Amino acid sequence: MKKSLILDTAHLLLTSLIDPNDIVIDATMGNGFDTLFLSKLAKQVYAFDIQEQALLNTQGLLLKEHVTNVTLILDSHEHILNYVSDFKGVVFNLGYLPLGDKSITTTKDTTIKTLETLLPKLKKDGFILMVVYVGHKAGLEESHALHDYIQHLDQHLFKIMKIELPFQRNKPPYVILIHKTKDVC
Ligand SMILES: C[S@@+](CC[C@H](N)C(=O)[O-])C[C@H]1O[C@@H](n2cnc3c(N)ncnc32)[C@H](O)[C@@H]1O
After folding, report:
1. Closest ligand 1 atom number to CA of residue 54
2. How many domains does the chain have?
């Protein structure tokens, strides 16, 4: 394990979920570390962010690493389906840009709205993986809204896993994996 147990565990899960021919989406590109990681597992990555700074940072990282299978898109993840409709999975690393403007953060309304558009598009074995941060106000609200929403998903279609550090006192992030197990009921 290198940086964070939770982020490293999220990446470990992604290595078992993604095959080399898959198309995957990074819904929150930020500084591009998850985008870079996904680019090494998948055939093609589409990465979204609402901040130009995120695109510039990610572009720089991908150029340095000679990555050519990533499309960067300056738009909110609620519009993902305007750009790509056929994908294996979507990754969200929620919250604000590290070292950036903390007021520009993912929000419960947009995140839930985006899930509502993406979940029906998932095929069997498709997934949505989210890293959820509860250490700031918007993140805690987002976490509560996600729990309210996810608990009502059809359990015949989706298996939902939560990975957390229950004994840590510093409000660490946690991982939610929504895995689609059937195409239809
Ligand atoms: C925690 S950072 C992501 C970290 C990133 N995955 C990395 O590896 O560096 C969260 C990012 O989500 C972005 N964001 C916030 N709302 C968004 C939205 N509606 N659509 C897309 N990105 C959004 C923020 O601008 C921020 O860059």
Report:
1. 27
2. 1
Q: How many A from CA of 107 to the centre of ligand 1? A: 10
Model confidence at 78: pLDDT above 90: yes
Query: For the whole prediction, is pTM greater than 0.90?
Result: yes
In the predicted model, what is the mean pLDDT of residues 65-94?
98
Strands 70-74 and 44-49: parallel
Tell me the per-residue pLDDT of 89-105, one tens digit each, with 9 for 90 and over.
999 999 999 888 889 99
Q: How far apart are CA 69 and CA 71, in angstroms?
A: 7
Q: Which of 73-77, 117-121, 149-153, 167-171 has the lowest mean pLDDT?
A: 167-171
Does residue 47 lie in a domain region? Answer: yes
Q: Residue 185 falls within a domain, yes or no? A: no
Is 68 inside any structural domain? yes
CATH (domain of 34): 3.40.50.150
- CA 165 to chain centroid, in Å, comes to 19
| CA-to-CA separations, 14 to 106, 176, 183, in angstroms, rounded | 21, 12, 21
Helix (H) or strand (E) holding 23: strand 23-26
Q: Does the Cβ of 58 fall within 6 Å of ligand 1?
A: no
**Poorest-pLDDT segment among 44-48, 76-80, 116-120, 169-173:** 169-173
**Ligand 1 center–CA 153 separation, angstroms:** 25
Q: How far is the CA of 64 from the centre of ligand 1 (A)?
A: 21
